[in-house]
């Protein structure tokens, strides 16, 4: 089994029942999942896995994205530009702009 170097988790605000609720969902995080997947393919990034998650309990900062194993938590991911910044950081292996935030 190939293990990715990075795993992106994007909060989709799913609850145990499977119903999406909460700030991340209301602000369109689910709509960004398709863009992330397409952009990863377009850029030829092969070492990244993307998953949507249930609520990450950070609603005041949503939508929230987490990158593992780097333990990078990114708040306010509401646009394709924000996704591009994250993917640029992964390609450059430089998360400084997110660590300082």
Q: In what order do the strands lie side by side in the largest sheet?
A: 2-1-3-4
What's the CATH C level? Alpha Beta
Helix content: 25-40%
Estimate what percentage of residues fall within beta strands. Answer: 15-25%
Quick one: CATH superfamily? Glutaredoxin
Oligomeric grouping of the chains = single chain
Q: How many DSSP H or I helices?
A: 4
Instruction: State the CATH architecture.
Output: 3-Layer(aba) Sandwich
Structure description:
The chain is of the alpha+beta class. It has one domain (6-94): 3-Layer(aba) Sandwich (Glutaredoxin). The chain has helices at residues 23-26, 29-43, 80-92, 96-99; strands at residues 6-14, 48-54, 65-68, 72-74. The mean pLDDT is 89.
Protein topology:
Blueprint: E1 6-14, H1 23-26, H2 29-43, E2 48-54, E3 65-68, E4 72-74, H3 80-92, H4 96-99
Parallel strand pairs: 1-2
Antiparallel strand pairs: 1-3, 3-4
Helix pairs in contact: 2-3
């Amino acid at each position: 089994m190939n293990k990715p170097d990075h795993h992106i988790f994007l909060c989709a605000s799913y609850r145990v029942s499977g119903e999406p609720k909460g700030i991340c969902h209301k602000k369109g995080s689910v709509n960004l999942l398709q863009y992330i997947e397409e952009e990863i393919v377009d850029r030829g990034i092969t070492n990244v896995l993307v998953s949507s998650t249930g609520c990450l309990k950070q609603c005041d900062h949503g939508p929230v994205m987490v990158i593992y194993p780097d333990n990078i938590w990114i708040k306010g991911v509401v646009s394709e530009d924000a996704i591009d910044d994250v993917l640029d950081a992964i390609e450059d292996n430089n998360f400084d702009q997110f660590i300082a935030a």
